[in-house]
Amino acid sequence: MLVAITAALFCRAWLQVELLSDGLPRYYAADLAYLVVPPILLALLFPVLRSHRRFIARLFPRRDLTLELVLNAFAIGFLLRLAAWCYLFAGVSFGLYVNDDPTAITGPIFAFDCAAPHVVALGFLVMSVMVPIIEEVLHRGLIQSWLSYRGRVFAILSSAFLFMLVHNPSSWLFAFFAGIVLGLQFWNTKQLWSSVVTHATVNGLIQVDWRCFHGHWNPPASQVPVWSVGIVCASVFATAVGLIIYLLKQKSAGVPNAPRQ
Prior knowledge:
This protein is mainly alpha-helical. It has helices spanning 2-21, 26-34, 37-44, 46-51, 53-58, 67-93, 117-147, 152-165, 172-189, 193-211, 227-248, and strands at 106-112, 213-218. The protein has a two-stranded antiparallel sheet with strand order 1-2.
């Protein structure tokens, strides 16, 4: 499975480079290139998906898709993104993230200006629909389930680690933390609705950041630390993490009987 995922992502990276060389915008090229991932994974993992199709179907029970579940999962996704923003702003405020280039001193400057409608639409289709379903089925539904015989901690941390590795190194910390949250959702609820909705919410908000919201803030060293901003952001970060933990506290029911490897 890991070989199939690696092969699909390698093909995507190659196609993205080709599209960039043709002059397409960075994010648009990335989204277009991702369209090759589903058919490649389907072809390479067809024997696995076919033999475990009933198990995968059980991960999406219709009776569990309730308004309460959707709202809970949406709230967790929103809080994850809020925590990421607060972590970044607190890091800048306390001097943990510094750009020493004197020409980079700027801000705070914020603007809201979306890309072309077809670019935004493709971004949401890929990142908020396709990616959450594919990654949750693979990383939580199959990989975490296969590792569940080693116990909750090992299964969740291992799947979160592998989930982290398929993301950009600059986002590894957030991807690992998000992977743990998504893994806990799956472990606690025995279905993938929760983690898919949370994953889609996080990616949807990221799309708003990338496609529409533009922010620049790199205060000069003489102004760091910016205590007023840093303390507020650190407090909101801690509150968001606390609320995520609270929302995750459901009755743990394990995971469905794992498919054989």
